[in-house]
Amino acid sequence: MGWNSWNKFACNVSEDMIKSMADAVVKSGMKDAGYLYVNIDDCWQVSRDANSNIVADPQRFPHGMKAVGDYIHSLGLKFGVYSDAGSKTCAGRPGGLGHEYQDALQYAAWGIDYLKYDWCNTTTQDAKASYANIRAALDASGRPIVLSICEWGTAKPWLWGKEVGGNLWRSTGDIQDRWGGQEKWPDGNCCSNGVMAIIDQQVGLQSYAGPGHWNDPDMLEVGNGGMTDVEYRSHFSLWALLAAPLIAGNDLRTMRPEIHDILTNKEVIAVNQDALGREGERVAKNGDLEVWAKQLKDGSRAVILLNRGATEQQISANWEDLGYPSTVSASVRDLWLHKDLGKFPGKYSAAVPLHGVVMITVKP
Known about the structure:
Elements: E1 2-4, H1 6-9, H2 15-27, H3 30-33, E2 37-39, E3 45-48, E4 54-56, H4 64-74, E5 78-84, H5 100-110, E6 114-118, H6 127-140, E7 146-149, E8 168-170, E9 182-184, E10 190-193, H7 195-202, E11 214-216, H8 229-241, E12 247-248, H9 257-263, H10 266-272, E13 281-286, E14 289-295, E15 301-307, E16 313-318, E17 329-334, E18 339-345, E19 347-352, E20 357-363
Parallel strand pairs: 1-2, 1-12, 2-5, 5-6, 6-7, 7-8, 8-11
Antiparallel strand pairs: 3-4, 9-10, 13-14, 14-15, 15-20, 16-19, 17-18, 17-20
Helix pairs in contact: 2-4, 5-6, 8-9, 8-10
């Protein structure tokens, strides 16, 4: 759990902005809710020096990266940066190819806790070998550093990410701040992914995730303005059920109370952080109406009734789809209303708004 600069700010990163965002993580209650990592994405780096050491932008980061990290650490937070397995990053800055061990030592000296490693400008490289190499370099640095494999799911990193020491791996292309499915980019290349496109791409991947090694359906867009609050609540609920990393990407300094309440819902976050570490899965689908469920450590289930359609619909979760006998009576709690709804035999039904969810726990 944490925050990353890309979805809101893209290349417009600076020392002052990152420090003010770290302050906001604490002041807004995000830290208390579990958000710990403050991650600078692409564009912090500009060159390599005479000794090939990576150089931070001296205009935007005048005191250097260690000073930024020290400030973040002083708030009880953790510090993340971004690089790339290729010769250049996605924004054309110097990449890590051929400098993995040198960069890892530099990151350790700066106090880095998290490295997001992208996949632009990699030409003929083998993905598994490239990520095994940077993991070995990070381990050799002597500092524990989370490795976020940002390979976009192209080489099916869920099949090998755990083996090479990845802690999380992207299972899709980049998220866009919109509800819908896949669309081609204006240049004809594939593909821009709305929240529903990403959700569809998670189906069948749940067996590859577990404690310390997670499928990553990309960072959160909650609060960035492209969707309604109902859609953002659905987005956040689904990511929580998927045991996905919760990396916020909005401006925490100016977020509306409604957005704050979505990102800090302790009951929904508890589903995400449940100690069993089980990724949720789709257990029923009828057109635009879906039921998703996640087994929790205490034997109960977290359940989402998802309405992808354009009108309000009644959706039912049948106990048999959750792995319970149909004869059982179960207690149901609504995690957004923060309310116990009573005991129900066989199933639970609710009216779900368009593009909305009802998120419950079901406990026999």
